[in-house]
């Protein structure tokens, strides 16, 4: 990745400027696979899964949570610093009020306990990074570490301290090795993954049912990109050779990345699309060439010339 310099003011325009590794990863369309994979992985933590089950409409609208997650990730990546701060305050405020009951111990926990927030963060960012790299996004090991370090800031928006968050692949691997003893396949976890493999649509979305057979390969792809230890815990689908999964993921990435940005962005909530449009406008006003959208800004040639050149 180029070390091309950018105007200092770009940090006032977007949380993560185009020269960051986060920009590269979060504009890759494998994020959809990574997002669902992240939900499947998160479900293995009993308290985290029960927190979702007891405090959301996941059972009726599993993909609503995915779109809300996409909105949060979008705002703390492509939004202005003010937009990121605002959604961070909103998310922290919601989490502060929520509780989760643990039937195994009879205890009640806060949803915003650091251990739960950290698990959700690590499951999410590891999924984005692993799927993007396996799908063909050419990141070096150093760039992968830089991505995880950049995501420490994103973790602060939900209430974590950046120093408590893994900032490299080695630190992330150590975290997963430590936390695996706490993971378990609960009834809620199995139900959640089955929802994501073959969703039962709520009544208001039943008109989409005809498209479910086309969705099934996508859901299976998300499942098969899980770490081997996670798939073995679930045991919901027969194993397939790793090269087959990698080839399918690369084919998905190629097809998804070929979609024009306006067509792709229709998958987001209206508020997310408005935020992305405002980001493009601010960057364009600052001298960035946004004629090919935000994805086009992965090319440093579309950035403003540095002063003095």
TrEMBL record:
Enzyme Commission number(s) of this protein: 1.-.-.-
Domain ER-bound oxygenase mpaB/mpaB'/Rubber oxygenase catalytic: 23-253
Enzyme class: oxidoreductase
InterPro entries registered for this protein in UniProt: MPAB/Lcp_cat_dom
Keywords: Oxidoreductase
Molecular-function annotations in GO: oxidoreductase activity
Pfam families for the chain: MPAB_Lcp_cat
Entry annotated with the keyword Acyltransferase: no
Name of the molecule in the record: Oxygenase MpaB family protein
Organism: Nonomuraea indica
